[in-house]
């Protein structure tokens, strides 16, 4: 017992300050990326000083919270909707900042023991919830909508039927999913970290899952970087600079991971109004989502009807996965069957999470966040992944890539790579 107690870090003021660094880093990164993206999208022009509330709603949505969209016309009626969309650029920025701060060695002296990192994560979780609470409560605003003429506006005011529309974050959902988000970030950081002291159970977890988690995390980040390169080229060559920058700063992983899933044979279903969502999207994707007047299926077949280059996504996904399997097998040798199984399981989970996070459901909610027009009340935007199909294909691709990567690691002469 004395040995165990001696290995536990003491929750001093310095320890709480290090945990606070994790929270501040995450919120600062999310706030900066979100503010720039919203500014590029035009949210700074929203009336009534709504920008801070919109930014708070964006941060809440980035950690998995939902935003309730409300509206009414006084005693004559009320309407409501829900905005469920994750601005994954903001999410990823916060995750990278929080993970880096969590794994940062203590400033004064070496780590006190294997329990230090879990203890820091626990303290960060407490402070994270305390910080998210004011963010969620600040994410609310109401706008008054004109009826189209001064006479109608005066008549509406006299009848108590002044139309309003607004939004507010669901505090409970924001805190609950925000805690889950931080715990997932901590778990991934533990698996990715190579030499950080950990308790024995977490060491075993890292030994079993760490190599595949590194591979899948690198794959997802690599797709985001590739998407960033493509986005910068589009930004520099095709105009719409501000709106394209807004896509990069708010939803780049949404598009990059959709491209990965489609390249692996996955599919999404959805629809957007004829006017789009107020931000540019790939031409083929927009054409598929707007065809037929109902829900359309987004997959290789439907996209290739509008752009034959879509099939390149298959080659890119295959090369990326085999490279991930090869590098994992080279750095972390294991029996061939285990190479395939561990990559299959983690890739299936990673694609399930990515597919779920790319979902979008909104009825005039996006316009309240500064994207689109405030009078688009009848428009509904939907996009959701077919998760069973995506997860199953992820397992099959992961198994094949793990086996092939393991074979290549045995055939190709060893270089200097070593875990």
From TrEMBL:
This is Streptophobe family protein. The chain crosses the membrane at residues 20-44, 50-69, 81-101, 121-139, 175-195, 215-235, 247-268, 310-329, 341-366, 386-409. Keywords: Membrane, Transmembrane, Transmembrane helix. The keyword Transmembrane helix applies.
């Amino acid at each position: 017992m004395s040995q165990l107690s001696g290995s536990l870090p003491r929750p001093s003021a310095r320890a709480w300050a290090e945990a606070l660094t994790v929270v501040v880093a995450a919120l600062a990164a999310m706030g900066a990326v979100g503010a720039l993206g919203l500014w590029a999208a035009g949210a700074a022009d929203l009336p009534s000083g709504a920008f801070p509330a919109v930014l708070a709603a964006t941060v809440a949505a980035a950690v998995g919270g939902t935003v309730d969209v409300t509206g009414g016309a006084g005693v004559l009626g009320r309407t409501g909707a829900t905005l469920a969309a994750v601005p994954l650029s903001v999410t990823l920025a916060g995750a990278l900042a929080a993970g880096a701060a969590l794994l940062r060695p203590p400033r004064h002296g070496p780590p006190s023991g294997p329990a230090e990192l879990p203890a820091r994560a626990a303290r960060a979780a407490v402070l994270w919830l305390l910080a998210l609470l004011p963010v969620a409560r600040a994410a609310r605003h109401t706008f008054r909508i004109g009826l189209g003429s001064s006479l109608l506006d005066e008549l509406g005011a006299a009848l108590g039927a002044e139309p309003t529309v607004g939004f507010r974050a669901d505090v409970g959902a924001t805190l609950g999913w925000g805690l889950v988000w931080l715990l997932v970030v901590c778990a991934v950081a533990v698996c990715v970290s190579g030499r950080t002291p950990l308790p024995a159970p977490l060491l075993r977890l890292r030994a079993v899952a760490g190599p595949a988690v590194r591979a899948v995390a690198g794959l997802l980040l690599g797709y985001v970087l590739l998407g960033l390169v493509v986005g910068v080229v589009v930004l520099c060559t095709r105009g719409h600079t501000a709106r394209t920058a807004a896509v990069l700063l708010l939803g780049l992983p949404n598009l990059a991971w959709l491209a990965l899933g489609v390249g692996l044979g996955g599919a999404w279903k959805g629809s957007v109004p004829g006017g789009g969502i107020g931000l540019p999207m790939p031409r083929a994707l927009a054409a598929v989502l707007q065809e037929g007047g109902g829900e359309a299926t987004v997959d290789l077949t439907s996209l290739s009807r509008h752009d034959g280059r879509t099939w390149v996504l298959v080659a890119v996904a295959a090369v990326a996965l085999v490279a991930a399997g090869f590098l994992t097998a080279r750095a972390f040798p294991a029996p061939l069957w285990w190479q395939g199984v561990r990559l299959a399981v983690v890739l299936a989970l990673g694609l399930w999470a990515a597919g779920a996070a790319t979902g979008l459901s909104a009825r005039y909610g996006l316009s309240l966040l500064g994207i689109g027009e405030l009078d688009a009340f009848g428009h509904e935007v939907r996009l959701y992944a077919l998760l069973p199909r995506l997860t199953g294909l992820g397992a099959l691709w992961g198994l094949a890539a793990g086996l092939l990567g393991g074979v290549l690691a045995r055939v190709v002469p060893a270089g200097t790579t070593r875990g």
